[in-house]
Design a protein that fits this description.
Family: In the C-terminal section; belongs to the PPC synthetase family. In the N-terminal section; belongs to the HFCD (homo-oligomeric flavin containing Cys decarboxylase) superfamily.
Organism: Nocardiopsis mangrovi
Number of helices: 13
CATH architecture of the largest domain: 3-Layer(aba) Sandwich
Distance between the termini: 34 Å
GO molecular function: phosphopantothenate--cysteine ligase activity; phosphopantothenoylcysteine decarboxylase activity
Cofactor: Mg(2+); FMN
Catalytic activity: (R)-4'-phosphopantothenate + L-cysteine + CTP = N-[(R)-4-phosphopantothenoyl]-L-cysteine + CMP + diphosphate + H(+); N-[(R)-4-phosphopantothenoyl]-L-cysteine + H(+) = (R)-4'-phosphopantetheine + CO2
Number of strands: 19
Radius of gyration: 23 Å
Number of domains: 2
Length: 408
């Protein structure tokens, strides 16, 4: 392990066309002070040559187990790393890593590394969805490796689908979250997490809606930190203008009814459900087909009906044994009083209660909260970055998952 203040990153490069995007990821690492050792596979050099990697990293490229044999590179590189980040991780590389094969320098490095290992897959949709690849991914995740889900978009040629390497900025953000945890175990590895984020919009007409001020930042922070802890993440996003966390499977919705449908469709596969979205309590009984015009007689009243209570439904009707449900409560006053009443009424395992308004919580980079537990616990989280609050929430979730191991 590197002992100075510059993290030592091993950047493994697989043989995929997306290797060209990894050049930008390498720049992000070096420009932010990370020391990077690039370890490409032999075929990866067919896509981006050794001089490019050497110039961008400022270090010689490690290409083979027979180079500088006296330094024992197939052992030393992995031992010295603070993070191994593999991108693009091809189907072939994932298969070799899952089965412990070591036929080149990169696969040897993966076996000797005792630091966090992140795979960023990129391949055609059919390859990603093949049962062999899915089994290999599940195997790696069960061992504590972080395997990010690929993005949806344009692939090689005219094809479009899931399998695209996420953008370098998003990959770098994911790497920094993992590095921030140091050598803490990926304690959500092998777990599937469902997170809702943002604020629902209930249409009055095609132009206007009833909504709220939620930016989705806290929900996105929960998704990003869960990914850094090894979870497989499905993120149900309601009207959010933030970049997708690299590796999350994002489902976009607009209204409360759409959010409910998306969450219920995924709940049976989730070990944890975190309802961080601000779901509207009411919606118009009817939405006008065209824009409502001024008539001079004043606005017609908008009749409202209640939306389904999604958190209550999820808590009462658990889709699997041991499932942990986390809710959020935004209050303007009597925060703990209303929070405790809501926890009892909703029946969730944890309720994150925070005060909003006057520049607090909504749209900000920081947040503070009290997390109330069904067991009577109350954990105060002081003001700080929303990612820090998210990590504290996961710290409370993990021990509640421990007893579920026998049910999986």
């Amino acid at each position: 392990m590197n002992t100075d203040h510059s993290p030592e990153v091993v950047l493994g490069v697989g043989a995929g066309i997306a290797a060209y995007k990894v050049c930008e990821l390498l720049r992000r690492f070096t420009e932010s002070g990370h020391r990077v050792q690039v370890v490409p596979t032999a075929d990866a050099l067919r896509f981006v040559g050794e001089p490019t990697w050497a110039a961008l990293s400022g270090r010689p490229v490690a290409t083979g187990v027979w180079d500088r044999v006296h330094d024992v590179p197939h052992v030393r590189i992995g031992q010295a790393a603070d993070l191994v980040f593999v991108a693009p991780a091809t189907a072939d590389l994932l298969a070799k890593a899952a089965h412990g094969l070591a036929d080149d320098l990169l696969t040897n490095t993966l076996l000797t590394a005792r630091c966090p290992v992140v795979f960023a897959p990129a391949m055609h949709t059919e390859m990603w969805e093949h049962p062999a690849t899915r089994t290999n991914v599940a195997t790696l995740r069960s061992r504590g490796a972080i395997v990010l889900d690929p993005a949806v978009g344009r692939l090689t040629g005219a094809d479009t689908g899931r399998g695209r390497l996420p953008d370098p900025d998003h990959l770098f953000a994911a790497a920094r979250r993992v590095l921030a945890r140091g050598r803490a175990p990926a304690d959500l590895a092998g777990r599937r997490v469902l997170v809702s984020a943002g604020g629902t919009r209930e249409p009055i007409d095609p132009v206007r809606f009833i909504g709220n001020r939620s930016s989705g930042r806290q929900g996105y922070a929960l998704a990003a930190t869960a990914l850094a802890r090894g979870a497989e993440v499905v993120l149900v996003s309601a009207n959010v203008g933030l970049p997708d966390p690299a590796g999350a499977d994002v489902r976009r919705v607009g209204s409360a009814l759409e959010l409910r449908e998306a969450v219920l469709a995924e709940r049976a596969k989730a070990d944890v459900i975190v309802m961080a979205a601000a779901v509207a309590d009411f919606r118009p009984a009817a939405s006008a087909a065209g824009k409502i015009k001024k008539t001079g007689a004043g606005p017609a009243p908008v009749e409202l009906v209640e939306n389904p209570d999604i958190l209550l439904e999820l808590s009462r009707e658990r889709a699997r044994a041991g499932q942990v449900v986390v809710g959020f409560a935004a209050e303007t006053d009597h925060v703990l009083e209303y929070g405790r009443a809501k926890l009892e009424r909703k029946g969730c395992d944890l309720l994150v209660v925070n005060q909003v308004g006057d520049g607090r919580a909504f749209g900000t980079e920081d947040n503070q909260a009290v997390v109330l537990g069904a067991d009577g616990s109350a954990t105060e989280i002081p003001n700080g970055p929303k990612e820090d609050l998210a990590d504290r929430v996961w710290d409370l979730v993990v021990p509640r998952l421990a007893s579920d191991d026998t049910d999986r």
